[in-house]
Amino acid sequence: MPHLRAVLTLCAALIATPAAAQSMPVSVALDWTPNTNHIGLFVAEAKGFYEEAGLDVEILPYSDTSAAVLVANNIADFGVLGSIGLFTQRTAGADLVATYALVQTETGRLVFRADRDDIQTPRDLDGKIYAGFGSGWETAMIGTIIRHDGGEGAFETVTLGTSAYEALANGAVDFTLEVYTWEGVKAERDGPAQRAFRYANYGVPDQHTNFLGTTGAYLAEHPDTARAFISTSRRGYAYAVEYPEEAADILVAANADTLLDREFVRASLQAMIDGHYLRAEDGTIGTIDPGKMEAMGGFLFEAGLLKDGSGATVGEKPDFSTYYTNDLLGMEP
């Protein structure tokens, strides 16, 4: 009988802890060094939400290879995908599918120093110097903004990458683009003061700036794991909105090697909350808006920025409804 009791006790223990025995590995690649766009992932990991869902999630360190390339080549299961990259790379043949909208509205904006009295509306940017990042999207978008305000859309571009912000601060260039919830918050804290034009106010469609995404092949092969990962990540982002102090601490602690400024992280997160980026005013979180996807896809198509795998501009507008899915979100967190 003692032997039988031991066997029954062991069986009960195994039944009571299925997640530990059956955790499914999931890897997710970041699009940049850890920041508040990624905060829900780190919260879900630190709070044990992934473990509760039977997942063993590995957040891969940022590398020079884009998250979209890592995902499309099956090196990472999921990744943080930029909106423009999703549209262009998917059209060119990459197997990419957006599965979660990290932000509900555009976080980018066109910025210039607040002391520039000669810049009052977008048409004043004609003939000025733009510090850019090397994409055709920038040219099409800025030209649209200027022309929408009655200008010609003619400006000079110097490609500087992240050095654009230093160049703007010291007056070497006239304007650039930034992510408000990161670089914009930094400028508000450290100066110099800026003014900005929001893209969607001047003829450019509003968009989800970035997504969590995977491949169609992964969704077909691992539907339950994909659903568990996305719905649980959503829970992590919802928690970050409700408990920002704790969430900021988690992001900083999880990335001690990057020396994140805790107060800056907290300010960035507050900007995301106050601006209804992570969670919309109506409570929407993670959902991809079909109207926004169609509008931005159409904008890129009309601008001639969507090319096929051979590099030729596509002549027929793609079916953008296949570029994303909301089926993995689960119940409201």
Automatic annotation (TrEMBL):
Residues 35-247 form the SsuA/THI5-like domain. Pathway: Cofactor biosynthesis; thiamine diphosphate biosynthesis. Homodimer. The keyword Secreted does not apply. Pfam families: NMT1. PANTHER family: 4-AMINO-5-HYDROXYMETHYL-2-METHYLPYRIMIDINE PHOSPHATE SYNTHASE THI11-RELATED (PTHR31528:SF1). GO terms for molecular function: metal ion binding; transferase activity. Residues 1-21 form the signal peptide. Responsible for the formation of the pyrimidine heterocycle in the thiamine biosynthesis pathway. Catalyzes the formation of hydroxymethylpyrimidine phosphate (HMP-P) from histidine and pyridoxal phosphate (PLP). The protein uses PLP and the active site histidine to form HMP-P, generating an inactive enzyme. The enzyme can only undergo a single turnover, which suggests it is a suicide enzyme. This is Thiamine pyrimidine synthase. It catalyses: N(6)-(pyridoxal phosphate)-L-lysyl-[4-amino-5-hydroxymethyl-2-methylpyrimidine phosphate synthase] + L-histidyl-[4-amino-5-hydroxymethyl-2-methylpyrimidine phosphate synthase] + 2 Fe(3+) + 4 H2O = L-lysyl-[4-amino-5-hydroxymethyl-2-methylpyrimidine phosphate synthase] + (2S)-2-amino-5-hydroxy-4-oxopentanoyl-[4-amino-5-hydroxymethyl-2-methylpyrimidine phosphate synthase] + 4-amino-2-methyl-5-(phosphooxymethyl)pyrimidine + 3-oxopropanoate + 2 Fe(2+) + 2 H(+). GO terms for biological process: thiamine biosynthetic process. It comes from the Bacteria. Belongs to the NMT1/THI5 family. Keywords: Iron, Metal-binding, Pyridoxal phosphate, Signal, Thiamine biosynthesis, Transferase.
